[in-house]
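If you are new to this repository, start here. Below is one unmodified record pulled from the training split, so you can see the exact layout before writing a loader.
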Amino acid sequence: MDMSSREIRMPLSEVVAVLQDLNEFVVSLDRLGSRQASGTADEFTVGKFIADWDVARRLARARRVISVALDAQLSEEENAEIDVLCDQGRFYGADSAIGPSTDQSR
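And here is the target side for that same chain:
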């Protein structure tokens, strides 16, 4: 499937909600990174942010909003192709995507 020319429609209210969440995460993580660089935040602070701001649930909701739009507008075969592409991502904890740290005990 040539995805470069495809367009998917989504309700504006859903797009705005996802963009608001993503903007909060990007700005907050940038600020946390700056605090870590200056020594005023540590790994605990980042973990607390993720837990307190319900980051996992909110990101899952953003993924669901996009998935619902795709499911409604693409064929089963096209959605299956997108699923395969998404499964090729880098995932924390997977041996090949541990990240910059060489510590694999996490």
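Two things worth knowing about this chain: The chain has four helices and no strands. The two ends are 38 Å apart (CA to CA).
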